[in-house]
Every structure is written in structure tokens, then in C-alpha cells.
Amino acid sequence: MRIDCGPKAGNHYVMATEQVISREETPGTATVTPPVRDDDHMPIHGIDHVEMYVGNAAQAAFYFVHAFGFTETAYAGLETGRRDRVSHVLEQGRIRLVLTGTLMGSDDIAAHHAHHGDGVHKIALSVPDAEAAYNHAVGHGARGILTPHWVEDEHGRVQLSSVATYGDTQHLFVAREGYKGAFLPGYERRADTSKNPPDSGLFAIDHIVGNVELGHMNEWVHYYERVFGMTEMIHFSDEAISTEYSALMSKVVTDGTGRIKFPINEPAEGKRKSQIEEYIEYYRGAGAQHIAVATRDIVGCVSALKEQGVQFLAIPEEYYDEVPERIGEIEEDLADLRRLGILVDRDDEGYLLQIFTKPVGDRPTIFFEIIERHGSRGFGEGNFKALFEAIEREQEQRGNL
Ligand code: FE2
């Protein structure tokens, strides 16, 4: 699979026009629609942070620090003068994860947690102007939530606004240029890392996947096209993503710079309950399914994460028997991949390595992916079958297949 980006002109990306890619040998497996982008009314610098609403932010922060190697860099709560909620801000590389819990028991956080369990509430996008972003989004059909406003403290000011996306998930627009504080006004810097394990080498968010209800995938793909000017990058049909028992469909939207990739999944008809249906049943609606975080040393990273207690999906031994023939030459030692359960896939542009955690909370909902790319901009299509069979074994243990 090959996706060519054309010349970059200022903020404007012009995508090449003759780069249609499809796997002719397997029709319907994956098609890439050439993104055409000659304007940018919705400039986005990247993902500013992801905020999860959780049942116990202190313990969730401990987990992500000690199991995933994040560092707590900022905090807001009773000690900083905030009376209703507590937030721990964790960072690793350019990844910023905010874990928020309620102190009130009867607010939006409590309601979100009672309904969904631990889950992503905000996917915050860094923008040059949160008012322009809001006006553009609402003008193109997004439901506005927070109207644009400035917040400030002695470190400067930040402009915020937000709009709704799938389920109860929101996109917060953050314009923080020139702001010198630890995170946002109201947060105090935290820097005691003396008891932390070392950084695990995670450096950026690669993509965030949303699961939506049956029949709603295209609606959300169109939302990202209309509201954010994103383009559909790739499409996986239910034939491509199916096992003996269950199926799903997926389309990926991107902002064209590659900094933002949002795959959207919906369940498809299968013999048994698909993993997307299980997610939607337990999350009680659409929501963020997984956050893929990138590393440049997946073998070292996953070794550390396993040592620190992160649980990953188990991949059967037989998977590795056909890897040399399917993938060809790679830099990593196959024995390491086999030992750690890391998956590998190749397309025309290169290869990628990936591994998926088990759900990180009580419900079979949100999980993480660790990914290392060597040229490939795909999503591990060649691994879908092995991966979904691994998920189904877990579903079966939960009585949900
Ligand atoms: Fe993924």
C-alpha cells in the first residue's frame, strides 16, 4: 500500500492525485481514497492531551506512572484550590494524559463514570485559535459545548473551547501559544520523579480509535470530513476484518499532515458478538476504544512494560511461523517478537510492529496499543485476524462471545 503526499506549501497540503491504492489481489480488503486538500480552514497542530474520567484518579495515575513509565508533571485538586475535581497530568515524550476524578459524586464526571466506567472524555486538539476552531466546527455542524474563553494565571493565558464528537466524547480546542505554566491555569507543577521507573520510550500518540454503533461509521467519517476538513485515508471492509465469529468495519480519517489519525470502527454482522459490540455494551455507547502510542524501540519498551505489570493480549506461537515469509527482512530479532508477543506487518511503504494491552480498567473497553513504524503508514491489516482471534479468546473468557 502506498500513499503519496504531494508538495507541502505553507500550511496547505496538496495530495498527489494518482496515488490510488488498492490491493487488487484482495478486492474490498483495503482501499485508499486519495485525499485532496488545497485549503486548511481548520489548522490543527496535533493532539494536545487526552483526558480520561476515572473512578480513582490517584490510583489510575499510580498505574500509568509505575506500569507505563509516565511522569506526573502537573496536578490540580483541593491543595491547589480546586474544590470539585482532581486531575493528575502525566507526560511521556509528547504524550500528555490527564486523569480526572470527581470530589462531588453528583456532577458530570460522576455521571460519566457511572455510565461509562473509566474512559476518554476529551481528545484535546492544539490549535492556533480556539475561537476560530470553534466557530468553524459549529458552523459545519458540530455541537458546541464550551464556548471560546480565556483562562489565565501568572504564567500566561490559554484559550479553550469544545465541541461534541461520538458518544459523550468531546474535542477540546486548546490555544496555548506563549503559555509558560505546567499544563493549564489552575494546575501546579509536579516534579518528584524519585520513585518512578524510567521512561518507557513512548514518544507520541499515533492514533486514537473510536467505536461507534452499528450503521453510524459513515456519519462520523463525514463529521470529521465536514467539521475538521479531514479526509478518509483508508477503509477496511468487514471481509478484511473478520474471523470465523465476528466482524467489524473501519475507516480512518486523517488531517493530511499525518499528525492526526482517527480510525472509526463499527460492528458488522457475524456469527457471534463482535468486539465492537462488546465494547458498546459495556461502555454503554460509542467511545474511544484504544489509544495507540508510538515508540522507537518496541522490544525495549514492551520488555519494560511487561516487567512493570502491563498485561498484553497473548498471541499464539503459530503466528510467528509464517512471519519470515510474510514480512521478509526486518531489523528486529524474531525471537524477541515471539517472546514478547509483538505483531509485525508490512506494506509497500515499509513495516510496522504493534502490540495491544488488555483493557486497562474494570470494563472490557479502553485499551492501549504500542506501535513502532518503519515506513508503513498502515494499521497492521495483516495482523487483524490473529489479533481479533486473540481478542475473541478473551471475550470468551468473559462470557461475551
Ligand atoms: Fe490501532
What would your notes on this structure say?
It is a single chain. The chain is an alpha+beta fold. Helices cover 22% and strands 35% of the residues. The protein has a ten-stranded mixed β-sheet with strand order 3-4-15-16-17-14-18-21-20-19. It has a nine-stranded mixed β-sheet with strand order 10-11-12-9-5-8-7-6-13. A hairpin with a 2-residue loop joins strand 1 (5-9) and strand 2 (12-15). The longest helix has 14 residues, at 384-397. Fe (ii) ion binds at residues 207, 209, 290, 292, 369, 379.
Keywords, separated by commas or semicolons:
401 residues; 10-stranded mixed β-sheet; 10 helices; 21 strands; disordered N terminus; binds fe (ii) ion
Question: Topology of this protein?
Answer:
Blueprint: E1 5-9, E2 12-15, E3 21-22, E4 30-32, E5 46-53, H1 57-66, E6 71-76, E7 85-92, E8 95-102, H2 108-116, E9 119-126, H3 130-139, E10 144-153, E11 156-164, E12 170-175, E13 188-189, E14 202-211, H4 217-228, E15 231-236, E16 247-254, E17 261-268, H5 275-283, E18 287-295, H6 298-307, H7 318-321, H8 323-327, H9 334-340, E19 343-347, E20 350-356, E21 367-374, H10 384-397
Parallel strand pairs: 5-8, 9-12, 14-17, 18-21
Antiparallel strand pairs: 1-2, 3-4, 4-15, 5-9, 6-7, 6-13, 7-8, 10-11, 11-12, 14-18, 15-16, 16-17, 19-20, 20-21
The structure holds fe (ii) ion (FE2).
